[in-house]
Design a protein that fits this description.
By secondary structure, the protein is mainly β. It is built from three helices and 13 strands, in the order αβββαβββββββββαβ. The chain has a six-stranded mixed sheet with strand order 2-1-6-11-8-9. A five-stranded mixed sheet has the order 5-13-12-7-10. It has a two-stranded parallel ribbon with strand order 3-4.
């Protein structure tokens, strides 16, 4: 058997993922319309009254949770976000997902307990068709640090760079690979690290971005991008067929 790195050898894993390159010269967006900074964090919330103890296994009888930019995503229970968006059904989601963390702090240091309990909500971020998007994904030390494989539905994106510590826009942008970055739909966000991705929002619809650790998405480590229709007939989301089964 070959000698493999330890399961927690983050440095080796990151060295491997950052070695990926595109085989052909890609067209990477250089002008950016939306520059987002999204933190990933775990946390705890108080358990609702009369909740079973097996569902409250965090310290002191609390419940584990997770969030992006301090928002723990709540999946709708009756109507999908896409249906609500296309049919104008109110009360299913709001369009106020923050483009940056509501509070700036030392993301990889000792985080105040006041940030351990995120807000809950079905908050989405709207994009016009053709928008050029850059997202700085930032791992945090909220409650505890963890790695997160971040997956975006509906798109492939260019991974420009990965690193450790707090992202510094004055120095870390020099590490961006704009020549031959890999094109993927999942990026590895290392423990207490960061990753930067770019894509063009040219696929209309509602697309979830989430951690691919199943337990984390269940805890709320997700958000949704609502991409509007474009002007052309091939740039619009098709209407559902009349015989589409309902939930």
């Amino acid at each position: 058997m070959p000698s493999l790195p330890a399961y927690n050898d983050t440095a080796t894993a990151t060295a491997f993922t950052t070695s990926f390159r595109s085989l052909r010269k890609p067209i990477v967006p250089t002008k950016i319309d939306h520059n987002l900074f999204i933190t990933m964090g775990l946390g705890i919330n108080q358990c609702p009254p009369k909740t079973r103890a097996r569902n409250c296994q965090a310290p002191n009888g609390t419940r584990f949770t997770a969030s992006m930019n301090n928002v723990s995503f709540v999946l709708p229970s009756n109507i999908s976000i896409l249906q609500a968006y296309r049919q104008g059904i109110p009360g299913v989601f709001t369009t106020d997902f923050p483009a940056k963390p509501p509070v700036t702090f030392d993301y990889t240091g000792n985080v105040s307990r006041s940030l351990w309990q995120p807000t809950r909500g079905t908050k989405v971020y709207k994009l016009k068709y053709g928008s050029r998007v850059q997202i700085v994904l930032k791992g945090t030390n909220i409650f505890t640090a963890e790695n997160h494989p971040i997956h975006l539905h509906g798109y492939d994106f260019y991974i420009l760079a990965e690193g450790f510590g707090n992202f510094n826009p004055k120095t870390d942008t020099a590490k961006f690979n704009l020549v031959d970055p890999p094109l993927r739909n999942t990026v590895s966000l290392p423990v207490k690290g960061w990753a930067v991705i770019r894509f063009v929002a040219d696929n209309p619809g509602t697309w979830i971005m989430h951690c691919h650790l199943d337990v984390h998405i269940g805890w709320g480590l997700a958000t949704v991008f609502v991409v509007e229709d474009g002007p052309g007939p091939m740039q619009k989301l098709e209407q559902p067929p009349p015989d589409l089964p309902v939930c």
